[in-house]
Amino acid sequence: MSFDGKIRVEYARDLHLPDVGLWLDPHRSKPFAFVSHAHSDHVARHQQILCSPITAHLLKVRYRISPERMMPCEFFQARSIAGFQFTLLPAGHIAGSAMIHINCLNSGATLLYTGDYKLRSSRTVETASWLKADTLIMESTFGLPRYVLPPAEEIEKQIVTFVSDTLDRGDTPILLGYSLGKAQEIAAILAAHDLPFLSTASVAAMTEACRKMGMSLPEAALFHDHVPLGFSLIAPPQAVRQAAVARLPRRRSAIMTGWAIDPGARFRYRTDAAIPLSDHADYPDLLRTVELVEPKNILTVHGSTRELAAALRQRNHNAWSIHGNDQLEFPLG
Ligand SMILES: [Zn+2]
What we know:
Blueprint lengths: L9 E2 L3 E3 L4 E3 L7 E3 L13 E4 L1 H11 L6 E3 L6 E3 L2 E7 L7 E7 L5 E4 L21 E6 L11 H17 L3 E5 L5 H11 L4 E3 L1 H12 L19 E4 L7 H4 L4 E6 L8 H4 L4 E3 L7 H11 L3 E7 L1 H10 L4 E3 L12
Parallel strand pairs: 3-4, 4-5, 5-6, 10-11, 11-17, 12-14, 12-15, 13-14, 15-16, 17-18
Antiparallel strand pairs: 1-2, 2-3, 7-8, 8-9, 9-10
Bound molecules: zinc ion.
């Protein structure tokens, strides 16, 4: 137990809070883990899984994880377990994505773990909320100053323009985004602009799972091997290599990703266009998160961890990359 006003954080391939007995998004099976959201790099078969109700549903539908292992917690409803109070907050990343705020009832020490998140609002996901915390563990996917995303309206305009131009040429627009999260956001944007579309099977399955949990999305019309004139196709990035999509005549594809900020992204993704629709915080929002949470200690995880931590130290924050110096335990504070 930590009595010095801090909740201890350990990292040995996975993030662990030894005082709490909780693992954060571990890759390997653990006795008790917080799973922030249902993207595959955050999911494993733990004995007990703390997550949001939507994530619990997605874990069951997508990964066949037994509901008996899950402890679904509604957003904003504090829950006390063994001397700690846990509060899940919307992370704004994908359906059901959560941050976790932990309060040690004994010492009053607090910790916020963001998981994957974004601050800006979107059409399909509850906008992120935060609580102040002594220790902030934050993702840093776009932790370099060049990752500044355009305003949401401008990104939507790029999508609508790409679709309209492609249809005007008599071609088929193919919009590529991960089947859980990005694909539903693309669907909502197209629907808002009265642009009809089909979805591949994996996209349709995730859209249906989200609809079942109350998300307001149009029912997915399924793609088989033909896209009617005037329609777009929403597909996961790997679908361009699948026969049914690769066979489509006169297709033009656009990848939807924050990495579209990088010059030449469309060449890397082998698409005709790259549009910076992202479900991660951009660099200015990463910095803003620190202002909002007002932490005494910051740990950066995922992506440009060292660069973001260095930039935060220059701003007089006590910030460290999780990979810094290969330490097993972080001497926070
Ligand atoms: Zn994710």
